[in-house]
Write a structure and sequence with these properties.
By secondary structure, the protein is α/β, with parallel strands linked by helices. The chain has 12 helices and 14 strands.
Length: 366
């Protein structure tokens, strides 16, 4: 590996550097040879024969012709290159699109190692070269980063030879992109369908919000410092944890217990295992049923921590203590009704998957 590339990766992609440093290149599988133009080209062994990744006569001119045929749509500011070879097409793309950024996905580890031994990536700023990776399990993460965290619109560029040599890997690549956009579409549909409801809830909940403390701002956080906490959600495995939770309560509160969603009903039914607080933020009308048992039994000592856009019916006639938190879907209270308050935190209203129904948080971060 070129020393310039080693230094670059040490700064911007140390994990890849450590991985490739330990990699032993299969020199019988991949060969760099000089062309008649006195520039290197690359070939890899498949079966008993070698396949050229670039032209064996003039790889620069070949790359120029390929990139001349490639155009990006208006608004595209990122290109994900599938298959890097020795990088001739990267040079041409950089020259043709000076305002576009790049990521490199090279499915062959030997080729990637060879590329970094021949091509100086340090001549690119880290702003223009987002990342380099070769492992397929990183596809979803990298595509999401480019589109969401970097907020960039991307297209893909694939060397023609890779369409033949790496059909399976290329299909996985395209499947990851399709899956990403399907998920984004679902988020937009969900956002659109709930938009009216979020606004109505924010308006109707505001009188309660101004009368209740903000759990993230108005509560003394030192009382949570170095304390363990348990988050309890509904699910089949919860049945195996009731006795453990009861012991925690009976022994003077060995940990804070917070219930989320409908788990509050199961805890009450199990001989009154009252959590230290119950949390809710679902904007739908039916969400009120989650804590209906608390209301029916007139339980007044379970604090309710609610999102500012929770279904407003949930808060009606709740007799226990209440605390609020602003959600990312609340476009009313933070910017318009609380202009004088500039020190409030927002909880992102998005689905979260937990593999276990009872998850233990070792220590609160304060």
């Amino acid at each position: 590996m070129l020393i310039e590339n080693r230094n670059y990766l040490r700064l911007y992609n140390r994990e890849l550097l450590n991985d490739l440093t330990q990699h032993v290149l299969n020199k019988d599988h991949i060969l760099v040879e000089q062309t008649k133009k006195n520039i290197p080209t690359l070939k890899i062994k498949q079966g008993e024969t070698y396949k050229y990744i670039h032209s064996k006569y003039d790889p620069q001119n070949e790359a120029r012709r390929l990139v001349d045929q490639f155009t990006i749509e208006e608004g595209t500011n990122h290109i994900i290159i599938f298959g890097i070879g020795l990088g001739y097409h990267l040079d041409e793309l950089i020259s043709k699109y000076p305002n576009v950024n790049f990521s490199i996905y090279e499915p062959n580890k030997d080729i990637l190692t060879t590329f970094l031994s021949e091509y100086d990536i340090s001549k690119l700023s880290n702003q223009r070269l987002h990342t380099i990776f070769y492992q397929s399990f990183q596809l979803d993460e990298q595509i999401k980063k480019i589109s969401t965290r970097l907020n960039e619109n991307f297209q893909t560029f694939c060397l023609p030879i890779y369409e033949k040599l790496y059909q399976e890997e290329l299909q996985m690549f395209y499947d990851s992109i399709v899956s990403f956009f399907k998920n984004e579409k679902n988020k937009i549909v969900t956002s659109f369908s709930f938009q009216k409801r979020w606004t109505i809830n924010a308006i109707k909940n505001f009188p309660t919000i101004v009368k209740t403390p903000n759990i993230l701002k108005d509560v003394e956080r030192s009382q949570f410092k170095d304390k363990s906490a348990i988050i309890v959600a509904a699910g089949p495995s919860l049945n195996e944890e009731f006795e453990n939770l009861r012991q925690i309560k009976d022994k003077g509160g060995l940990a804070y217990i917070f219930s989320v969603g409908s788990a509050i009903n199961s805890l009450i039914d199990q001989g009154g295992i009252y959590p230290d607080a119950t949390c809710t933020y679902d904007p739908q009308e039916r969400n009120q049923m989650v804590i209906q048992k608390v209301k029916d039994k007139n339980i007044t000592n379970i604090p309710l921590i609610f999102g500012s856009t929770v279904g407003y019916e949930t808060l009606d006639d709740y007799n226990g203590p209440m605390l609020h938190m602003f959600t990312s879907q609340d476009t009313l209270a933070p910017p318009f009704l609380l202009r004088e308050v500039d020190d409030f935190k927002v909880v992102y209203d998005a689905p979260l998957y937990c593999g276990s129904h009872v998850s233990v948080i070792n220590k609160f971060r304060v």
